[in-house]
């Protein structure tokens, strides 16, 4: 019985010593990525892409508004058949603009992911290298909203990781070119005969 008690005490002592031998560190991963030079390049490209999309949508919306105003002025001179056709054309144009706007938002989010992925991979590699060199067993992300509620007795290694990033080759942001541009909707609405021959699914792909 005494031998079992001593053995249990030794195991507990070894386990406790092993736990204390572990080194813990933390850093704000979001802040780390935002300080990288490539992050500024990514943001500039995203802003340029967003501005181009907004300008195109504004142009289409202005065109739709002009067509609607013209319809209101000339509606009294239309036959009922022509009037209904004009209304349908305006509705279809509005629907296409809405779909174009939604596709642009999806493409914008996709492009942002494409641009940020190599940055996060590079940051992760730098963290691993710093942790290996300095013997850290765990490195926690202290960014807000990542689920880490409390941390004690750890070292903030963001300065070490930043220094490690400086020694790594820069990312060629131009090499990552995604095909994220949505096809601009055609402002010319097809004639009624063509509308009957073209299904909505096929028309959307144009």
TrEMBL record:
Chain positions covered by the region annotation Disordered: 165-206
Name the Gene3D superfamilies on file.
Skp domain
Q: Is Cell division among this UniProt entry's keywords?
A: no
Q: Where are stretches of biased composition, namely Low complexity? A: 187-200
Stretches of the chain forming a coiled coil according to its record? 36-110
Stated family: Belongs to the Skp family.
Name assigned to this protein: OmpH family outer membrane protein
Q: Which organism is it from?
A: Thermaurantimonas aggregans
